[in-house]
Write a structure and sequence with these properties.
Layout lengths: L1 H16 L9 E2 L8 E4 L1 H7 L3 H15 L4 E7 L2 E6 L1 H13 L14 E5 L11 H19 L4 E7 L4 H13 L5 H4 L3 H25 L4 H7 L1 H14 L3 H25 L5 E4 H17 L3 E3 L5 E4 L7 E5 L7 H15 L2 E9 L3 H13 L8 E6 L2 E2 L15 H18 L8 H21 L7 E2 L2 H4 L7 H18 L14 H11 L1 H11 L3 H20 L8 H24 L9
Parallel strand pairs: 5-6, 5-11, 6-7, 11-12, 13-14
Antiparallel strand pairs: 1-2, 2-4, 3-4, 8-9, 9-10
Helix pairs in contact: 1-3, 4-22, 5-20, 6-8, 6-10, 8-9, 8-11, 12-13, 15-16, 18-22, 19-21, 19-22, 20-21, 21-22
The chain binds arginine.
Arginine binds next to strand 11.
């Protein structure tokens, strides 16, 4: 509705008052007032030296003239111009959308500069966990939402595949692994490498304890524990290109990456391109040199390189260690520059947990200092933690909830609840299993995406599968019911006359449907998929109340029947496409 009226209002202001505005604010008409959409005009009173009510009336008349088939009428309440769209407009809209599914979803326009979205971005020393799931779902949804506004999107991740963490897993595997591989053990590659990361830690703790018992102070013991020295040694060998170390590194990284790919496939997220820290950390070092030349960075006596950000309320930040090795931020400098070189993008969004807020502030501020023109188009989509209720699920590696285990748990819970409710009785076994996966995933995804990204979440697998609350399966079920209604209707056409009057329940539903593109735009601007999730929930509630109040198949006449079927069809289409923006599939029955 906004997309439709905004240009007309700007034109009206131009023609009436010679006023050129880049945008105007439109709001839904307040309850209790007649109208569909409202233009508040107070802000014009001073410039135009006219009472707001007079301005509203003039704009209202002009709009009727400009859009005679669309604007049915208006009324003025103080400084509010309440605009009613005509029954013809509603009828035309509904007919067209029924014939042309996909309302609100734009195709990306390849002539526009793209948006790159980075998400997941794991380290390669252990499997993905619940945090990566929230991250990946957010990144995937934000990508789909931005793409639906017509911008090309490039989905990416950085794989942090070098450094001390992976060296630890390598050392432990070499010491204790006895040649174990994913094939020989039947353990998924990422879990196998994770197992050795845990092994490292066990051995390390033991050694620190022993050294402490011999009277060494804790800090020294942590630094001097033999296995830790070995890990540091391993990292140095890696940096020096030692062939044996590189071969081990490659073998273990390949195991992990294969495991990640399987989890991503299962979760239903993908990437258009990937970056590896092992490639970009050297680029980062070059950028550090450039910053030194430009006098933006400085070298301390010990040889380490720093940047001073205290003028921005941040502190001094290390960029290269005294021994010349890079730190976490070094590779991020290189990766950012490479991305803008390689792709026609004007925006880069990093989906990363809020514990790295400081890191991204520093990163963006350094890139600005270095003068990259795109540096003010970098965003950190920062998100909160996900907790499970105490005692709900233990993970095999101990402290965190493993992604593969959680997905399996979701499928099992979906199976249990569906079978208890007798929902899939008589379905072929293969279809059943497919449906449980679709339901289980929807429950997980919707539950994590319906919350504002910044907020922490308490995730209860069982509650998330409730068929009646604000859940993914509830929305899927609404879609399935609409499909079955349309199926029962048999052959019908989206042909119906303009009704003398729309029933209130019909109009409420239609008005909500019309808003879908505005919702997508809003979600894209705020990088917040929860806007889409909550819209879909409201839409389904409105549909259910329409369906309970008004007969569809048994409507009083054929025009009304076709109109209500059309309303149902378009609602179903919006539910399906809206859920797709959240990465959620719909089954045809459940
Ligand atoms: N691998 C990092 C971690 O697990 C996250 C990387 C985030 N992305 C980035 N460009 N720094 O903490």
């Amino acid at each position: 509705m906004k997309a439709l009226l905004e240009p007309a209002i700007r034109r009206a202001l131009r023609e009436l008052y010679d006023l050129n505005l880049d945008s105007v604010e439109l709001i839904p008409t307040k309850k209790g007032f007649e109208g569909d959409i409202t233009f508040p005009v107070f802000f014009l009173a001073k410039t135009l030296r006219k009472p707001p009510a007079a301005i509203a009336a003039e704009v209202g008349d002009k709009l009727k003239e400009l859009l005679p088939d669309t604007v049915g009428g208006y009324n003025v309440a103080g400084g509010f111009l309440n605009i009613s769209l005509s029954p013809e407009f509603y009828t035309r809209f509904l007919r067209e959308q029924t014939k042309r599914p996909g309302y609100g979803i734009r195709r990306p326009d390849p002539s526009l500069p793209g948006v790159m979205v980075e998400y997941s971005s794991p380290n390669t020393n252990k499997p993905l966990h619940l945090g990566h799931i929230r991250n990946s779902l957010l990144g995937y949804a934000v990508s789909a939402i931005i793409e639906a506004t017509g911008k090309p999107v490039i989905r990416t991740q950085i794989i942090n595949d070098r450094g001390i963490h992976i060296s630890k897993s390598m050392v432990a595997w070499k010491k204790f692994g006895e040649g174990e591989t994913p094939e020989s053990s039947g353990i998924k590659g990422d879990h196998l490498v994770g197992k050795y990361y845990v092994e490292f830690d066990k051995q390390y703790r033991k050694e620190v304890k022993e050294l402490a018992a011999q009277g060494m102070d804790e800090e020294t013991a942590k630094r001097e524990a033999p296995i830790m020295r070995e890990a540091r040694e391993m990292l140095k060998k890696w940096e020096n290109g030692d062939p044996e170390t590189l071969a081990l590194w490659k073998m273990m990284n390949d195991w992990v990456l294969e495991g990640f790919r399987e989890t991503y496939r299962e979760l239903g997220v993908r990437f258009d391109t990937e970056y590896f820290e092992s490639d970009t950390y050297l680029l980062g070092k070059k950028i550090v040199e450039e910053g030194l030349r430009k006098g933006i960075f400085y070298r301390k006596e010990d040889g380490s390189v720093w940047v001073d950000l205290s003028d921005e309320g941040l502190d001094e930040k290390l960029l290269l260690r005294a021994d010349g090795t890079s730190v976490y931020i070094t590779q991020d400098l290189g990766t950012a520059v490479k991305r803008f070189e390689e792709f026609d993008i004007d925006t880069l969004i990093y989906v990363v947990g809020s514990e790295q807020d400081y890191h991204f502030k520093v990163l963006f501020s350094i890139l600005k200092k270095l003068g990259y023109p795109w540096a003010d188009r970098l965003y950190h989509l920062s998100y909160g933690m996900v907790h499970l209720p105490e005692g709900k699920m233990k993970s095999r590696e101990g402290t965190v909830v493993d992604a593969d285990d959680l997905l399996q748990k979701m499928y099992d819970t979906a199976r249990k609840i569906s079978e208890e409710l007798g929902k899939t009785e008589g379905f072929p076994p293969q279809e059943k299993e497919k449906i449980y996966k679709i339901i289980g995933k929807a429950a997980l995804k919707y539950h994590l995406l319906k919350v504002d990204p910044r907020k922490d979440i308490l995730f209860d697998p069982k509650k998330s599968i409730d068929f009646n609350g604000n859940t993914g399966p509830f929305l899927q079920y609404a879609y399935v019911r609409i499909r079955s209604l349309l199926h029962k209707a048999g052959d019908w056409q989206a042909e119906f006359a303009v009704p003398e009057q729309w029933d209130e329940k019909e109009k409420d539903l239609l008005k909500q449907i019309i808003q879908f593109p505005d919702i997508i735009r809003n979600a894209a601007d705020t990088l917040n998929p929860a806007v889409v999730a909550n819209y879909l929930y409201q839409l389904v509630k409105t549909y259910n109340s329409f369906y309970q109040a008004l007969p569809v198949l048994q409507a009083p006449d054929s025009d009304t029947r076709a109109r209500r079927l059309a309303l149902s069809a378009v609602t179903g289409d919006v539910i399906k496409n809206g859920l797709a923006l959240l990465g959620i599939e719909v089954p045809e029955r459940m």
